[in-house]
Every structure is written in structure tokens, then in C-alpha cells.
Amino acid sequence: MIRVTVWNEFVHERQHEEIRELYPDGIHACIAAGLEELDSGQELEIRTATLDQPEHGLTDEVLGSTDVLLWWGHCAHDQVGDAVVEKVVHRVHQGMGLLVLHSGHFSKPFKRLMGTPCALKWREAGERERLWVVNPGHPIAQGIGRCIELPHTEMYGEPFSIPEPEEQVFISWFEGGEVFRSGNCWHRGNGRIFYFRPGHETYPIYHNPEIRRVLHNAVRYLAPNTWWSDITSAPNVPRDQAPEPLK
Ligand code: ZN
Predict the structure, then answer these.
(1) Which one of 3.40.50.2300, 3.40.50.880, 3.30.10.20, 3.40.190.290 gives the CATH number of domain 2-115+183-227?
(2) Residues with beta carbon < 5 A to ion ligand 1?
(3) Model confidence, pTM
(4) Are strands 2-8 and 44-50 parallel, antiparallel or unpaired?
């Protein structure tokens, strides 16, 4: 089983009627439903967590039993407690996968793990976006054709101040002419990280079947694949415990 936690700050949906219409139970519930829908092999165990819960719903118990964490935030990044951020970072180093969505580019865990400002250009004009698959053999692009077309999106444009991605899966083109690296992978410690751009709250992005397919692929790709998670200790190996006898 892959244990998945979908985290959302869950603020816009409570404040704006038009956003609540798109996501009546919150963006997290819609993302969770999309993962559930594609989980024909029943390999996912999905739960959600939100900012207003104690420890933002990310207690030691929850984080300790999360294999892949999805993160959606926008207007409340600064309300996320630093202690929780450190625990998320520690779990990524241990091997937990992290899927950072859309405006999560400015979230504390993502910036902390990237070590760069993660800034970008943006425009809200409801323009068309094509997410071109630039890495067709990548597991995250499976089942997707040459591109995903979204009729109305918020624009994100380069330069995106991130470290050079280790693998890039998508690059976006926007009607207004800008481009953006919109699907990028990194490792930090044992953990894998995927940033995926689409997901502005005023458009039904997480209802889109192809976006749901990418999220499902990404969760499977990000699942931990290591036996080693003891990342903090630096044990001494005495002479008599060396793998080969020492004279
Ligand atoms: Zn947005």
C-alpha cells in the first residue's frame, strides 16, 4: 500500500462562493477523489489534512505513516508553523515523497527543500495553456498524449527561480506567449519531489481527467523505495565490526 496524505490550507473555498462551487468540500477532497477514482489496483490509502487542524493535521503519527504528501497552499503559507515544516523536510529526507501543487511553489516546505526563492511571473487572464510532455518515457507522463490542453488557467512564467530540475516532465505554453517549467523532479535525501503547476483555485483544474491521471502517476512515482531511513545518526563502526576482518 502507498499511504497518501493530501494537505490543503483550505482557506479560499471557505471565503469565496465561486470557489466553493468548484470545490464544495475543499480542493483536498477533490484531489483525494481523483486519486481514489484511478486506484483500480487498490494500492492507495488516502487521507486528507488541513491547516486549521491541530499541528495542521500533520502530527508525528500522520507524517510517520505518510509515504507521499501532496501540498496545496496559497494565501496562508506564513501560517504554517516552522516546527511542522521541519518535520515535513525531515520526512522527505527519510524517503517520503512530496508533490507540490501550483501556488505551493511559495510554500515553506518547498522553499526550504529547494533552497532558492522559487519565484515566478504570473497573470490572471483566463488564458489557454498547453502542458507539453517533454519526457514521454517518464512514469509521470504515462497515459498522457503529446500535451494536456487547459482552456482557462492562470499564467505562470519564467524565470522560475528553482534549482535545475533533475528531470523535467512538462513545459507549459500560454496563450499570452510565456513558457514555464511546469512538471519538475528532484531528490532530497532519500525522498523524491515533484512540482506540478496547474491548480489555480478559480478553475476546475482538479476535475480534469488528464490532470488527475498525472497526479495518480506522480503519487506512484514518488512512493519511497528505500530500506534506509536513519538519516540523522552518524554511527561509528568499530574495528571489530568492519565487514571485512582488519589486521
Ligand atoms: Zn493561482
Answers:
(1) 3.40.50.880
(2) 103, 154, 200
(3) 0.96
(4) parallel
